[in-house]
Design goal:
Number of strands: 3
Helix content: 25-40%
Low-confidence stretches: none
Order of helices and strands: EEEHH
Strand order of the largest sheet: 1-2-3
Number of helices: 2
Distance between the termini: 17 Å
Radius of gyration: 14 Å
Mean pLDDT: 84
Length: 86
């Protein structure tokens, strides 16, 4: 168990679906490892899980989409903001 970075309470490992939207389409990756706070419910993913999600997105989403520069900038900002909150 780890401690929550928000309220410092204990967390427990759970495997939850990870959902996100890209280009107005919803994607779900099943059974992604999360640390979930027992007190406040905040969810966190570790670096290994984040790298897995990045790889999955590159292989299953980005390869099937033709990007323009504005989309690339927006998606990079969204990814940075997400990682900063997890």
């Amino acid at each position: 168990m780890k401690n929550c970075v928000v309220c410092k309470s204990q967390t427990e490992t759970k495997y939850l679906d990870f959902s996100f939207k890209f280009n107005n389409k919803k994607y779900t990756i099943p059974k992604i490892k999360h640390e979930v706070c027992c007190q406040c419910g905040e969810k966190f993913i570790d670096e290994e899980t984040s790298n897995f999600i990045d790889k999955w997105v590159k292989e299953n989403v980005y390869k099937k989409h033709v990007f323009n520069i504005n989309e690339i900038h927006l998606e990079l900002n969204n990814l940075i903001n997400y990682k900063m909150t997890t």
